[in-house]
Amino acid sequence: MVASRKDRLGRVARLLRENPHLRPGYERAKTVVRAFRRPAFYEVATRCNLFCEGCYYFSDDFAPPAHEVKDQSVWEEFFAAEARRGVTMAYFVGAEPALEQERLLAAAKCFPHGNIGTNGTVKLDPAIPYRIGVSVWGVDEEVDTSLRGANAFAKAIRNYAGDPRAIMLFTLTRTNLGDVRQLAEICADHDLPLTFNMYSPTQSYVRKLAERMGPDGRFFRISSEENNLRWDEGSLAAARRIMDEMLEDYPDTVVYSHAYNRWATQIGPLYDIDPQTGIARDCHSRMVEPMRYFKTDLRHAALEKCGTSDTICSECRMYSGGWSSKFEPRDEDVRDARSFAEWTGMVETLGRIFLLQRKPEQQIASNNVFEWVRVDEVADASLVLAK
Ligand code: SF4
Hints:
binds iron/sulfur cluster, alpha/beta, TIM Barrel, 387 residues
């Protein structure tokens, strides 16, 4: 039986009482969680310059909002209102946010924390003081081009080498596991931290496989029922092994966690799936208040399941849903001192992946003043993250 939230908190209190050495990690974890207390997603662009296989955004059901707001002053007023609503963490997604940088610059004046998901082919203005997750699908030119329709990786490295805002986000698929070690080496050489995402199929991708649809020349070019990107037992085990190895071999570059890796590569669904709707009941990426999701018409898309709505919850291993589901400890995280220490470690890692602090002169009046440093450069994250 699943314990109630109150019971879990009781177990946390007992664990801390009996194991005082766990308290510093717990305090750091709390500080990370606090930064995410009122999150919001903003689709700032409906255009993209790549064609990633099985893209979650350009699914068959995709239609851009009928009335995309183009007026910059309206975006500025909108972000100011969102800041007044108390948004602490802004996720900027797209299609490709780097194609609409004026909107990001407007947002930069409003939110203490932000995270931009980009393909890295267009450099973001240095004045945008948010964490930049640069998605990578392959290092080898042939692999990259087959998965994304272009060699995006080489451009991303040129654009972001040494940029303290950037973290490379490698989407592992069954076809690109062979690129991981080379990627870790390149990231280490270019002063870029590296973390991992796992490919998660959309409804339209799986339907095309089942219907044995031929290549469409756009977001479904290389997959077939026999040879596709869906995980199976063997490839999950291989992915787990390679991520564990990278953590050990490149500790100064790879920002990940053994405990998270174990969870994310387990066989079967990661979440409690509602049998009626197929939706993950315990995924913290769900659009449940206070989380809101806005498209480029600036209306709250209250009916969206999450930021990647066409993705199948029972096969979802997306880093966004996965990490945000670690904000609260589950039963297995409070079982004993060891599992609790692993949970606080995961939350700290989450902070290093998603958060970046502003330079003092870029600080918003109501926020704390911290140095412009890469969180993972600081031995004691509490120096950066503590209130
Ligand atoms: S992020 Fe959560 S809600 Fe969205 S597809 Fe994945 S499991 Fe489902």
